[in-house]
Every structure is written in structure tokens, then in C-alpha cells.
Known about the structure:
elongated, CATH 2.40.50.100
Amino acid sequence: MQSAPAEVTTDPESRPEQPETRPEQPDGSRLRFRWSVGAGLIVALLAVALGTVLLVGIRSRGHTVRNVAQSSHHANPNPILRLKGTTEAVQSRAVLAPLLAGQQVSTLTVIRLATAGTRVKPGDLLVEFDRQAQVRDFIDKQAEYSKLANQVLGEQAKENAARAKDETELKQAEDNLLKAELEMQKAEIVSRIDAEKNQETLEETRATFEQLRETFSLKRKAAAAAIRILEIQRDRIHETMLHAQANAQLMQIHSPIEGVVVLNTIWKQGTMGEVQEGDQVEPGVPFLQVVNPSLMQVRVLANQQDFLSLRIGQTAKVRLDAYPELVLPARIEQLAPIGEGGNFSAKLRSFVVIVSIQGNNPKLMPDLSAAVDVDVSGQTDTGSGS
């Protein structure tokens, strides 16, 4: 029979003490380092994810923009460039207030004036200024000219009579001299006293003849000078009279070409406006013009970027700001080879472009603001390039 194992009793107090095994706790610095490394990794992952999303979005947006551009290009195959300008007539004549010759006139008074929009032909009266002063001046100068002309004729008649008289006296003195010389040939057959008398007579007649011959020439020169002075005065008055007559004719201005009357806006009597009958205009001021509305064009200024897209021969459409519903076909005719400096910077250049309007319309008038839509798709060049 097996004996039961002896019960081993242990006394807790007699058991040797063993140290407790606890998990090792990190210190504060190592914990903060691990947290910062983890946070940086998370931020890097988020940045990569955000960059991927943005890249995908940009690519998709680029595809969308390209698709929209391609669709708009197919929808609008004719790109249009809009330019702004002003209408003007190809054929026109400016009418200026006349400059009077030989007169200092500050203003001229309009007494007759063709209304704006009137169609005129060559020779039709456009404007008439008050010419009473010029006509009165012409009449006065004409009377003075007639007086001087009569004086010249009178002096010439007197000179002719004096010349005839002097020629007679000179001829008589010459005859007396010849007679005295003949008497001197008788000195041998006459007495001594008569010979001395004949000698004295010869010397006297010779002196008289020489004096008359010299004074005859002097009298002719003096008379010619006096007559010439009167002739100069007469001619001067005659020129003044012709100037007055020409000035009177300048007071009436007739149309040089066939066209339409257009009144310019000028500075008159302290305000800006069109000339009317009774107004006063300074000489040399262009207050009116006659334009041929059958040939009109638009003058525009294109900047240096838009100018590169323009070519001679490109088609265009002109729209007038005053008549938005009116659309006129047009064509580029001229391109300026040299640009003009701008108001803000000399480096910004503008180029003059002339656009001819095809056809005509009664509403077409000069100095109207217009928009020119140029078709720059084909960039047709039928003339000399710019």
C-alpha cells in the first residue's frame, strides 16, 4: 500500500521574495518622438493623397476645357475680331470760310446756307456771306482808279504838247546856229565890226542850242517820272480794286463736287455747334463739307496684338452705333506700315486700318462711330501685305 504523499506545506513568510515583473514604461522624450514621427507620416500620406486628387482633377478639367474649346471651335469656325472706328467719306471736299486778300476781317456773317443733308451738284450754292463791305470797297477803288487813270492820260497829253513845243524851239535854235555859222563865213568881206557881231551871235546861238538840247532831255525824264508815279498809284489802286472784286466773289461758295452737305461742329460765339444763317465765322475755319455718300469707309485704330491678325482683303461687317440694326458688308483696304504712339505709353503702338464699306445706305454719314467685326479665320491677303 502506497503511502500518501507527504503534504508539503509552504510558509509564505518562509518563501523567498521575488521581484515583480511589470511592463517597462517609456519615458516622456521617447513618447513624444514616436508621436511626432507618426504624425509626420500621417501628414505625408494626406499630402500625397491630396496631390493625387488635385492632379486627377486638373487632368479631368483640362480634358473638359479642351473638349469645350474643341466643341466651341467646331461650333464657331469663323473667329471674329471687333474693332472700333469712325466713318468717313472716300471723296469729300472741305469748305472753309474765305480768307480775304488785303483785308483784316475778324469774322464773316452767313446770310445764306444750304441745310445739312441737302444733295448738291457741282456749281450749286453752298453758302453766301455778307459782302456789302467788299462791294463798297470795290466801288470806291473803282472810282479812285478811274480818277488816277484820267490823271495819267492828262499828264501824258501835257507831256506830248510840251515835247512838241520843245522840239520846235530846239529846231529853231538849230536853224539859228546854222544861220550864224553861215554869217561867219562872210567875215572876209564884211567889216570888222560886223564880223565881231556875227561871232557874238554865233556863240550866243550855239549856247542856246546846247542849253535847249540838254533841257529837252531833262524835261522828258522829269515828265516820264511824274507820269510813272501816277501810273504806279493807278496800278496799285487797280490791284486793290481787283482784290475787292475777288473778295466779293469769295463771299459766295459753290459746291466743287456732287454729294451731300454735312455741317461740321465748330466753336462759335462761345459754344460748340453747327453754323446757322446769321452766325459769324472766322476766316479759314472749316465749317462745312460736301461728301459723296456712295463711297464710304471706316478708319479704325488696331493695337499691336490685334494688328497681327489683320490682312488686306479680309471681309468684315460694319455696325453703326447710331443704327444698331444696320449691318453693312466691308473689306480691309489699307494697313498702316508704321504704328502711332499711344497716350499712356510710347511702347504701346496703334495702327491705322482703313475698311471700305461695300455698297451705300442713306443713313451712312461721316463722323459716325462704328464697330467693325473682322473675319480673321482665313486671313485672306489679296493685296500687298502689311
